[in-house]
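dumping the sequnces here before i forget
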Amino acid sequence: VKELGKNNFQFYTPDMNEAVTRKMQMEIGLRKALERKEFRVYYQPQIDVNTGHVIGTEALIRWEHPEWGHMSPADFIPLAEETGLIIPIGEWVLNEACRQNKEWQTQGYPPLRMAVNMSSRQFKQSNLIDTVSNALDLSGLEPQYLELELTESIIQDSKYAITTMQKLKDMGIFLSIDDFGTGYSSLNYLKHFPIDSLKIDQSFTRNMFENTKDAALIHTIITMAHNLELKVIAEGVETEEQLQFLLQRQCNEAQGYLFSRPIPAKEMTGMIKKQYTY
Ligand code: C2E
Ligand code: CA
Ligand code: CA
Ligand code: CA
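..and the predicted 3d for all of it:
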Protein backbone atom coordinates (compact mmCIF):
# COMPACT_ATOMS: atom_id res chain seq x y z
CA VAL A 1 0.00 0.00 0.00
CA LYS A 2 1.45 3.30 -1.04
CA GLU A 3 0.64 6.48 0.78
CA LEU A 4 -0.42 9.19 -1.63
CA GLY A 5 -1.71 12.06 0.43
CA LYS A 6 -3.01 12.57 3.90
CA ASN A 7 -5.76 9.94 3.99
CA ASN A 8 -5.34 8.73 0.53
CA PHE A 9 -4.23 5.15 -0.07
CA GLN A 10 -4.35 3.09 -3.21
CA PHE A 11 -3.16 -0.39 -3.95
CA TYR A 12 -1.82 0.03 -7.43
CA THR A 13 0.07 3.03 -8.60
CA PRO A 14 0.90 3.49 -12.27
CA ASP A 15 4.51 2.63 -11.39
CA MET A 16 3.55 -0.66 -9.81
CA ASN A 17 1.33 -1.49 -12.75
CA GLU A 18 4.20 -0.87 -15.07
CA ALA A 19 6.49 -3.09 -13.03
CA VAL A 20 3.93 -5.90 -12.99
CA THR A 21 3.36 -5.61 -16.73
CA ARG A 22 7.09 -5.65 -17.39
CA LYS A 23 7.52 -8.74 -15.26
CA MET A 24 4.68 -10.49 -17.09
CA GLN A 25 6.18 -9.59 -20.44
CA MET A 26 9.54 -10.84 -19.33
CA GLU A 27 8.01 -14.11 -18.24
CA ILE A 28 6.33 -14.53 -21.63
CA GLY A 29 9.63 -13.70 -23.30
CA LEU A 30 11.53 -16.16 -21.11
CA ARG A 31 9.08 -18.93 -21.97
CA LYS A 32 9.81 -18.44 -25.66
CA ALA A 33 13.51 -17.71 -25.45
CA LEU A 34 14.72 -21.31 -25.48
CA GLU A 35 12.88 -22.39 -28.65
CA ARG A 36 13.72 -19.06 -30.29
CA LYS A 37 17.38 -19.72 -29.51
CA GLU A 38 17.92 -16.35 -27.85
CA PHE A 39 20.25 -17.63 -25.13
CA ARG A 40 24.01 -17.72 -25.44
CA VAL A 41 26.66 -19.08 -23.14
CA TYR A 42 29.65 -16.83 -22.49
CA TYR A 43 32.82 -18.10 -20.87
CA GLN A 44 35.10 -16.45 -18.37
CA PRO A 45 38.59 -17.88 -17.87
CA GLN A 46 39.78 -19.09 -14.49
CA ILE A 47 43.50 -18.69 -13.98
CA ASP A 48 45.95 -20.75 -11.97
CA VAL A 49 47.74 -17.88 -10.22
CA ASN A 50 50.99 -19.80 -9.93
CA THR A 51 51.39 -20.63 -13.62
CA GLY A 52 49.22 -17.92 -15.18
CA HIS A 53 47.47 -20.56 -17.26
CA VAL A 54 43.80 -20.84 -18.00
CA ILE A 55 42.74 -23.97 -16.18
CA GLY A 56 39.01 -23.60 -16.35
CA THR A 57 36.13 -21.44 -17.44
CA GLU A 58 32.81 -20.45 -15.93
CA ALA A 59 29.74 -20.68 -18.16
CA LEU A 60 27.55 -17.57 -17.84
CA ILE A 61 24.22 -17.30 -19.61
CA ARG A 62 23.36 -14.34 -21.87
CA TRP A 63 19.94 -13.46 -23.28
CA GLU A 64 19.76 -11.54 -26.52
CA HIS A 65 16.16 -10.46 -26.98
CA PRO A 66 15.26 -9.31 -30.53
CA GLU A 67 13.59 -6.12 -29.22
CA TRP A 68 14.91 -5.58 -25.72
CA GLY A 69 18.51 -6.34 -26.60
CA HIS A 70 20.92 -7.66 -24.05
CA MET A 71 19.28 -8.79 -20.80
CA SER A 72 21.44 -9.25 -17.73
CA PRO A 73 21.20 -12.58 -15.87
CA ALA A 74 20.81 -10.60 -12.65
CA ASP A 75 17.48 -9.41 -14.10
CA PHE A 76 16.06 -12.62 -15.51
CA ILE A 77 17.59 -15.46 -13.44
CA PRO A 78 15.51 -14.58 -10.35
CA LEU A 79 12.34 -14.65 -12.47
CA ALA A 80 13.44 -17.91 -14.07
CA GLU A 81 13.85 -19.37 -10.59
CA GLU A 82 10.50 -18.04 -9.41
CA THR A 83 8.65 -19.50 -12.40
CA GLY A 84 10.58 -22.78 -12.54
CA LEU A 85 11.84 -21.91 -16.03
CA ILE A 86 15.35 -22.20 -14.59
CA ILE A 87 14.95 -25.98 -14.90
CA PRO A 88 14.86 -26.18 -18.72
CA ILE A 89 17.12 -23.12 -19.07
CA GLY A 90 19.68 -24.55 -16.65
CA GLU A 91 19.60 -27.88 -18.44
CA TRP A 92 20.27 -26.12 -21.73
CA VAL A 93 23.27 -24.25 -20.26
CA LEU A 94 24.64 -27.46 -18.78
CA ASN A 95 24.36 -29.34 -22.08
CA GLU A 96 25.86 -26.49 -24.10
CA ALA A 97 28.75 -25.95 -21.65
CA CYS A 98 29.62 -29.66 -21.60
CA ARG A 99 29.42 -29.86 -25.38
CA GLN A 100 31.70 -26.83 -25.77
CA ASN A 101 34.21 -28.12 -23.27
CA LYS A 102 34.40 -31.47 -25.06
CA GLU A 103 34.80 -29.64 -28.37
CA TRP A 104 37.89 -27.82 -27.04
CA GLN A 105 39.34 -31.16 -25.98
CA THR A 106 38.56 -32.69 -29.37
CA GLN A 107 40.37 -29.76 -31.00
CA GLY A 108 43.43 -30.81 -29.05
CA TYR A 109 43.63 -28.19 -26.31
CA PRO A 110 44.65 -29.24 -22.80
CA PRO A 111 41.52 -30.16 -20.85
CA LEU A 112 39.84 -27.39 -18.88
CA ARG A 113 37.33 -27.60 -16.08
CA MET A 114 33.94 -26.18 -17.02
CA ALA A 115 32.10 -24.54 -14.15
CA VAL A 116 28.32 -24.34 -14.44
CA ASN A 117 26.09 -22.37 -12.07
CA MET A 118 23.34 -24.28 -10.37
CA SER A 119 20.42 -22.51 -8.76
CA SER A 120 18.92 -24.02 -5.63
CA ARG A 121 15.72 -24.78 -7.51
CA GLN A 122 17.68 -26.86 -10.01
CA PHE A 123 19.60 -28.55 -7.26
CA LYS A 124 16.35 -29.61 -5.60
CA GLN A 125 14.94 -31.11 -8.81
CA SER A 126 14.28 -34.80 -8.28
CA ASN A 127 15.87 -35.76 -11.59
CA LEU A 128 18.99 -33.63 -11.15
CA ILE A 129 21.31 -36.64 -11.21
CA ASP A 130 19.75 -37.87 -14.48
CA THR A 131 20.04 -34.40 -16.00
CA VAL A 132 23.73 -34.20 -15.12
CA SER A 133 24.62 -37.71 -16.26
CA ASN A 134 22.67 -37.12 -19.43
CA ALA A 135 24.73 -33.97 -20.14
CA LEU A 136 27.94 -35.97 -19.67
CA ASP A 137 26.70 -38.83 -21.86
CA LEU A 138 25.48 -36.54 -24.64
CA SER A 139 28.72 -34.59 -24.76
CA GLY A 140 31.15 -37.37 -23.97
CA LEU A 141 32.80 -35.13 -21.37
CA GLU A 142 34.57 -36.88 -18.51
CA PRO A 143 33.05 -35.92 -15.14
CA GLN A 144 36.24 -34.46 -13.66
CA TYR A 145 36.04 -31.69 -16.26
CA LEU A 146 32.63 -30.60 -15.04
CA GLU A 147 32.31 -28.37 -12.01
CA LEU A 148 29.00 -27.40 -10.44
CA GLU A 149 28.87 -24.10 -8.56
CA LEU A 150 26.44 -24.29 -5.68
CA THR A 151 25.48 -21.46 -3.35
CA GLU A 152 25.14 -21.71 0.38
CA SER A 153 21.35 -21.40 0.01
CA ILE A 154 21.10 -25.05 -1.07
CA ILE A 155 22.30 -26.04 2.35
CA GLN A 156 19.01 -25.14 4.02
CA ASP A 157 17.91 -28.74 3.77
CA SER A 158 21.22 -30.24 4.70
CA LYS A 159 20.21 -33.90 4.66
CA TYR A 160 18.99 -33.72 1.08
CA ALA A 161 21.95 -31.55 0.12
CA ILE A 162 24.54 -33.98 1.49
CA THR A 163 22.92 -36.97 -0.22
CA THR A 164 22.68 -35.19 -3.56
CA MET A 165 26.19 -33.76 -3.37
CA GLN A 166 27.56 -37.17 -2.47
CA LYS A 167 25.90 -38.67 -5.56
CA LEU A 168 27.45 -35.98 -7.75
CA LYS A 169 30.81 -36.49 -6.05
CA ASP A 170 30.57 -40.25 -6.59
CA MET A 171 30.04 -39.56 -10.29
CA GLY A 172 33.40 -37.75 -10.24
CA ILE A 173 32.13 -34.19 -10.58
CA PHE A 174 33.98 -31.24 -9.05
CA LEU A 175 31.86 -29.26 -6.58
CA SER A 176 32.37 -25.71 -5.40
CA ILE A 177 30.59 -23.21 -3.18
CA ASP A 178 29.89 -19.99 -5.05
CA ASP A 179 29.74 -16.53 -3.43
CA PHE A 180 31.38 -18.00 -0.36
CA GLY A 181 31.05 -15.88 2.74
CA THR A 182 27.82 -14.12 1.81
CA GLY A 183 25.29 -16.77 2.80
CA TYR A 184 25.08 -16.43 6.59
CA SER A 185 25.28 -20.18 6.91
CA SER A 186 27.13 -22.07 9.57
CA LEU A 187 30.68 -23.12 8.75
CA ASN A 188 29.81 -26.51 10.15
CA TYR A 189 28.59 -27.70 6.76
CA LEU A 190 32.11 -27.47 5.37
CA LYS A 191 33.17 -30.55 7.27
CA HIS A 192 30.16 -32.63 6.21
CA PHE A 193 29.80 -31.65 2.58
CA PRO A 194 31.86 -33.32 -0.13
CA ILE A 195 33.10 -30.12 -1.76
CA ASP A 196 36.34 -29.41 -3.58
CA SER A 197 36.60 -25.67 -3.67
CA LEU A 198 35.41 -22.31 -2.34
CA LYS A 199 34.84 -19.26 -4.50
CA ILE A 200 35.52 -16.11 -2.52
CA ASP A 201 32.75 -13.68 -3.31
CA GLN A 202 33.69 -10.63 -5.34
CA SER A 203 32.42 -8.25 -2.67
CA PHE A 204 35.49 -9.19 -0.58
CA THR A 205 37.88 -8.83 -3.50
CA ARG A 206 36.42 -5.48 -4.49
CA ASN A 207 37.08 -3.88 -1.13
CA MET A 208 40.27 -5.59 -0.08
CA PHE A 209 42.30 -2.37 -0.04
CA GLU A 210 39.56 -0.06 1.19
CA ASN A 211 38.45 -2.23 4.06
CA THR A 212 41.03 -4.03 6.19
CA LYS A 213 38.30 -6.36 7.40
CA ASP A 214 37.71 -7.62 3.87
CA ALA A 215 41.42 -8.26 3.49
CA ALA A 216 41.44 -10.13 6.79
CA LEU A 217 38.43 -12.20 5.74
CA ILE A 218 40.05 -13.15 2.43
CA HIS A 219 43.17 -14.26 4.24
CA THR A 220 41.10 -16.23 6.74
CA ILE A 221 39.00 -17.95 4.07
CA ILE A 222 42.13 -19.02 2.17
CA THR A 223 43.78 -20.40 5.32
CA MET A 224 40.65 -22.18 6.42
CA ALA A 225 40.06 -23.68 2.97
CA HIS A 226 43.62 -25.02 2.82
CA ASN A 227 43.33 -26.49 6.30
CA LEU A 228 40.22 -28.31 5.10
CA GLU A 229 42.07 -29.37 1.93
CA LEU A 230 39.86 -27.29 -0.31
CA LYS A 231 40.99 -25.17 -3.23
CA VAL A 232 40.19 -21.47 -3.29
CA ILE A 233 39.36 -19.24 -6.21
CA ALA A 234 38.91 -15.48 -5.89
CA GLU A 235 36.24 -13.85 -8.01
CA GLY A 236 36.09 -10.31 -9.31
CA VAL A 237 39.85 -9.78 -9.62
CA GLU A 238 40.24 -6.53 -11.52
CA THR A 239 43.70 -5.22 -10.66
CA GLU A 240 47.29 -6.42 -10.55
CA GLU A 241 47.44 -5.30 -6.88
CA GLN A 242 44.56 -7.56 -5.97
CA LEU A 243 46.24 -10.44 -7.77
CA GLN A 244 49.51 -9.84 -5.88
CA PHE A 245 47.66 -9.82 -2.58
CA LEU A 246 46.03 -13.14 -3.45
CA LEU A 247 49.31 -14.65 -4.64
CA GLN A 248 51.04 -13.73 -1.38
CA ARG A 249 48.29 -15.46 0.55
CA GLN A 250 48.49 -18.58 -1.60
CA CYS A 251 45.11 -18.33 -3.24
CA ASN A 252 45.04 -21.06 -5.93
CA GLU A 253 43.00 -19.51 -8.68
CA ALA A 254 41.58 -16.19 -9.79
CA GLN A 255 38.85 -15.00 -12.10
CA GLY A 256 37.95 -11.48 -13.13
CA TYR A 257 38.21 -8.62 -15.58
CA LEU A 258 41.99 -8.43 -15.05
CA PHE A 259 42.21 -11.56 -17.19
CA SER A 260 39.05 -11.30 -19.23
CA ARG A 261 35.38 -10.49 -19.15
CA PRO A 262 33.03 -13.33 -20.02
CA ILE A 263 33.38 -13.84 -23.78
CA PRO A 264 31.76 -15.91 -26.53
CA ALA A 265 33.12 -19.42 -27.16
CA LYS A 266 34.98 -18.31 -30.29
CA GLU A 267 36.98 -15.69 -28.41
CA MET A 268 37.60 -18.12 -25.59
CA THR A 269 39.05 -20.52 -28.12
CA GLY A 270 41.49 -17.81 -29.18
CA MET A 271 42.50 -17.25 -25.59
CA ILE A 272 43.05 -20.94 -24.93
CA LYS A 273 45.10 -21.10 -28.10
CA LYS A 274 47.43 -18.40 -26.90
CA GLN A 275 47.51 -19.94 -23.42
CA TYR A 276 47.34 -16.55 -21.93
CA THR A 277 50.12 -15.61 -19.55
CA TYR A 278 50.51 -12.46 -17.53
P1 C2E B 1 28.05 -15.35 -10.34
O1 C2E B 1 27.87 -16.81 -10.52
O2 C2E B 1 28.58 -14.91 -9.02
O3 C2E B 1 28.96 -14.90 -11.55
C1 C2E B 1 29.93 -13.89 -11.48
C2 C2E B 1 29.43 -12.60 -12.08
O4 C2E B 1 30.44 -11.60 -11.90
C3 C2E B 1 29.16 -12.64 -13.57
O5 C2E B 1 28.08 -11.76 -13.84
C4 C2E B 1 30.46 -12.10 -14.15
O6 C2E B 1 30.30 -11.54 -15.44
C5 C2E B 1 30.81 -11.05 -13.14
N1 C2E B 1 32.24 -10.76 -13.08
C6 C2E B 1 33.27 -11.58 -13.40
N2 C2E B 1 34.46 -10.97 -13.18
C7 C2E B 1 34.18 -9.75 -12.71
C8 C2E B 1 35.01 -8.64 -12.30
O7 C2E B 1 36.24 -8.67 -12.32
N3 C2E B 1 34.35 -7.52 -11.85
C9 C2E B 1 33.00 -7.46 -11.80
N4 C2E B 1 32.44 -6.33 -11.36
N5 C2E B 1 32.18 -8.48 -12.19
C10 C2E B 1 32.79 -9.62 -12.63
P2 C2E B 1 26.90 -12.17 -14.81
O8 C2E B 1 27.41 -12.97 -15.97
O9 C2E B 1 26.11 -10.94 -15.09
O10 C2E B 1 26.03 -13.17 -13.91
C11 C2E B 1 25.37 -12.72 -12.76
C12 C2E B 1 24.82 -13.87 -11.97
O11 C2E B 1 23.77 -14.53 -12.69
C13 C2E B 1 25.82 -14.95 -11.66
O12 C2E B 1 26.65 -14.59 -10.57
C14 C2E B 1 24.91 -16.12 -11.37
O13 C2E B 1 24.43 -16.05 -10.05
C15 C2E B 1 23.78 -15.89 -12.33
N6 C2E B 1 23.97 -16.72 -13.53
C16 C2E B 1 24.65 -16.47 -14.67
N7 C2E B 1 24.57 -17.51 -15.52
C17 C2E B 1 23.83 -18.46 -14.90
C18 C2E B 1 23.37 -19.79 -15.26
O14 C2E B 1 23.68 -20.33 -16.35
N8 C2E B 1 22.59 -20.45 -14.33
C19 C2E B 1 22.27 -19.90 -13.13
N9 C2E B 1 21.52 -20.62 -12.27
N10 C2E B 1 22.69 -18.67 -12.76
C20 C2E B 1 23.45 -17.95 -13.63
CA1 CA C 1 29.17 -18.51 -10.30
CA1 CA D 1 30.03 -15.86 -7.61
CA1 CA E 1 26.59 -14.13 -7.34
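The CA atoms of residues 114 and 146 lie 5 Å apart.
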